[in-house]
Amino acid sequence: QLLDTPGLIPGFNLSELLGQEGGATNFSEIYRQCQRDAALWQSLHLDQSVSLDELLNISQYTGEISMAFEKMNITLSPISLLSQSQRDLLLNASQAGQAPDFTPTLEQLDQNVTQGSLLDLAAELEQLADKAGADVKEDLKADARKLRELDKEMQTSFSGPLQSLKENIHLVQSGAAQLEAQTKAALDKASKTQEFLERETANIIKNETWAFLEELLDFFETYISWAKSRLTEDVARCKPIAQTLDNVEVITCNYILDSL
């Protein structure tokens, strides 16, 4: 209270010393703040003389960063997915890969396995047996039975593989017919992809780089916010100053002056 008396020390003003215009900071208030273990930033009201928000505000730099970033020119090497020679090679290969005409082959497969009909031959042998003598009649009939059995065995053995062969031929024909169209479609997609990459790759890189830069700026803002809170609330707590003053008061007043 004695130190706070106006004019006690000529020309001394604590608020002006701390750079506070029209402030009312005094020693009594500082003492009470220190008793509550406040930081010196709060006790001395330094926010009135130093603006942390203005000093540590990085938004004033983001405009310059943004302008510099917009002026940045990204130049990439030419992108070539397929050269013209490779395109011609694929197209020629698809055109040369057309299947031959399997129509005669399919017509032959639809006929009997043998050149003539074994059943017809067996029927002819039976007719001859009816007209032949007794000495060869039974032999001809036996041969006719063998021919019928052979025809039955051949039908059983060859029907499955022949059907599979015909299906494979049809698959080859349909696949070869689509080969050229599929090759052209793939080449068209490659051309569109190359055009997209040449047109958009620079923008994609720029956008991703700006997103990364914004993330870095967010990290800085978070750090600055933490630093401001630490500086204004935790750094240089002044309770020891108040305790030291209390100890001086006890020793000086209670033990020395009171004893006198």
Describe the protein's topology.
Elements lengths: L13 H4 L9 H9 L4 H4 L8 H4 L3 H13 L12 H13 L6 H8 L7 H14 L2 H100 L5 H19 L3
Number of domains: 2
Could you state the order of secondary-structure elements as H and E? Answer: HHHHHHHHHH
Strand content: under 5%
Provide a count of the helices: 10
In whole angstroms, the N-to-C terminal distance is 23 Å
What is the number of beta strands? 0
**Mind telling me the C-alpha Rg?**
52 Å
Mean pLDDT score: 75
**Sheet with the most strands, sense and barrel status:** none
Low-confidence stretches: none
Helix content: over 70%
Task: Give the overall form.
Answer: rod-shaped
Structural class: mainly alpha
Main location: membrane
GO molecular function: cholesterol binding
Membrane topology: Multi-pass membrane protein
Subcellular location: Cell projection, Microvillus membrane
What does this structure look like?
It is a multi-pass membrane protein. There is one protein chain. The chain is mainly alpha-helical. It has 2 domains: 2-56 and 237-259, no CATH class; 72-228. Helix content is 72%, strand content 0%. The chain contains 10 helices and no strands. α6 (84-96) runs antiparallel to α9. It is rod-shaped and about 170 Å long. The two termini are 23 Å apart. The relative contact order is 0.12.
What's a quick, concise take on this entry?
With 260 residues, the chain is mainly alpha-helical. It contains ten helices and no strands.
Overview features:
single chain; 260 residues; mainly alpha; 2 domains; 10 helices; 0% strand; Prominin; membrane
